[in-house]
Amino acid sequence: MELNIDKSDWIRVQLGDVSHEYSKRISNPADSNHDCFVGNSNIDQWDFRVKRWESTSSVTSAMKVFESNDYLLVRRSLYASDFRERAPRAHFSGICSGDILTIKENPDLLCDGFLIGVLNSSKLWKFVVSNASGSITRRIKWKDLRSYEFLLPPKQKQAEISQLLWGINELITKREKCVFETDKLISSLLDDHFRDNLHISVPLGDAGIWVSGGTPSKKNNKYWGGDTPWVSPKDMKKDIINTSIDKITNLAIDEGASLLPEQSLLVVSNQL
After folding, report:
1. Alphabetically, which GO biological process terms does the record hold (predicted)?
2. What is the C-alpha separation between 123 and 150, in angstroms, rounded?
3. Using an 8 Å Cβ cutoff, are 96 and 66 in contact?
4. Is the dihedral of CA 241, 243, 247, 251 positive or negative?
5. 55 — pLDDT class (breaks 50, 70, 90)
6. pLDDT for 126-166, tens place per residue?
7. Which of 17, 85, 235, 266 sits at 20 to 30 Å (Cα–Cα) from 197?
């Protein structure tokens, strides 16, 4: 859906005009006054908030400090151009990986919280992919990211947009919590049922047709970028899978990839 918004009074700016990188390193995080360490793996795609962290007690090498309300943009890709679009705003201070850019808004130019929409836009991440350096894994540098251009509305309009974005995110968070609690209830009911009322036991292998998954060669570009979802553990964070991050071509299927029917039950066989 495309919104019809009057942008006649919006001005074109660079990211570095309205924000700056806060880069402060700490040599021994375990001895610091910070308890929380945020690594790349603690941040999920399109998250507005940091939802997971670890203890700094196990961190033995130099890392970076971030402050409350900093934006934490993961600047390193998982593989090639797969950056996974991760740039939440921290609601606490702590230590983070050196592969995370810590970014602060300029309060004179930006309404509080507005930058979340810029850093979580598909256009910005296309810019990241185009300007990152490296081969197997790639990184974006602040000196390159700061030149990203976008249209900036007046502060009053920024406040309206920011309120809308954060309001939607709050609704999504509440829904996720409701789904989580419902899943716990269903799991508890199923445990009670099968523990107390199951009279006939059969091997799990006899309960259906089991098919092993496989990964088409990442070195063959002809296998990737098609229309068929290729589901991996990173997609299996919800009960119903409608699509996947990666997709494969018909050639990959013709040459051995398993094509499963709808309603198939997927089980992760390796440790995440």
Report:
1. DNA restriction-modification system
2. 9
3. yes
4. positive
5. very high
6. 999 999 999 889 999 999 999 999 999 999 999 999 999 99
7. 266
